[in-house]
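Task card 7
Instruction: Convert sequence to structure tokens.
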Amino acid sequence: MDKKDIYEHLANIYLDASSKRKKKDKRLLKFSKPVFVISIFLIFSISSIIFNNFHKNKPLNSETALFISTETAKINFNFNPAKKEVYSINLNKLDMDKFKTLGFSLKTKNYGDSINLRIEFTNSFKEKSEIYIKEISHKWHDYKVNFADFKKITDWSKMSNLSFTVEEWNAKEDYGVVYIDNIRFLR
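Output:
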């Protein structure tokens, strides 16, 4: 046997051994993927069972809401020519019997503003009722008002209008801005 034959013999042994090793590695991968997936599934299942049992008697903090406005509304008031500024939403005879609360967020533009805001509902039977939100600040604040506070509305099945009004006698300054956001009806 010469050197060339020895090299070919060693190359055949090496190549044959490396191809067998690759086959073993592929079989190991085929087996390890399902084991990995099953173990991840079991970990998530067990952790959800533990979480649910731990929080079983605690209700989730969630609301069912109908959002009326998706953009921030702005009441830009200047009382030199006018006596009030209104942001109004047409409810188009919306049936609100299943809802119990009006939710919204308010803030003023300036730090020193002292503004009271009138909120008024009107139904299709021309019943009107209003409440006032007092001393709105320059930071966002979330408000929730029960429909029961609107005492003059007897029928919530065909609501026609919701309005937010800044009146001259309820504002410290003659001009300013009130922002209204996240207007929604809650069950």
